[in-house]
Amino acid sequence: MERKIAKILTYVFHPLFVPTYAFLLLFSLKSYTSFRISFSAKMSLIIIVFVSTCVFPVIMMFFLKRKEMIKSFKMNTKEERIFPCLMTAIFYYINYYLFNKLNIPEIYSNFLLGATILVIEALIINFWWKISIHMIAIGGLTTLFISISILLNLPLQYLVIVLFLVSGLVGFARLRLNTHNSAQVYTGFLIGALTMLIVFFKISL
């Protein structure tokens, strides 16, 4: 039963879904950063983010599997993660570049910049160590909203608490499935969290 729950958590909070979750949450904030964007524009932007940060990378992984460049979509070895991470970083950067050109608050492009940096960090670390990309992603998502709460003075404490709980559940799932050890899980979360904090506060100061 625990393994089934762990698998469900792993799929639901897969790193490829995190940017879409982030934008859904960002657009739901009661802040001028959300109010100044029309509903139709929000839907269009979410579709763009979902297609470019989830659909395209999944299509790419199907291609890599067909060419036998990866053995499975789980990418259990460090070697299998290199090319998918590289291509995902490119997709993320394209999103950052496009959003940076739009007339919308910079928190959206800042998040995509942070996400791009996180993928690159995961790629570099991956050459030596199989760090948890799930935890890097959820760590970045959690501190995204801590940063916004501080910088925009928004009461997001309940959302942040929920994200910490989700982080704990995802960490449990990765450990329960024996995909990572404790060090890889905790380090992944810390790298995701610290990188996103640095991106937001360095740009804002």
Taken as a percent bin, the fraction of beta residues is under 5%
Assembly of the depicted chains: single chain
Low-confidence stretches at least 5 residues in length (pLDDT < 50)?
none
Order of helices and strands: HHHHHHHHH
Structure description:
This protein is 78% helix and 0% strand. The protein has helices at residues 2-12, 18-27, 32-35, 39-66, 78-101, 107-126, 133-151, 157-176, 182-204. Helix 7 runs antiparallel to helix 8 (157-176). The radius of gyration is 17 Å and the shape is globular. The N and C termini lie far apart (47 Å). The mean pLDDT is 88.
Which features does this protein show?
205 residues, mainly alpha, 9 helices
Would you spell out the secondary-structure blueprint of this structure?
Layout: H1 2-12, H2 18-27, H3 32-35, H4 39-66, H5 78-101, H6 107-126, H7 133-151, H8 157-176, H9 182-204
Helix pairs in contact: 1-8, 2-4, 4-5, 5-6, 6-7, 6-9, 7-8, 7-9, 8-9
Describe the structure in brief:
The chain has 205 residues and is mainly α.
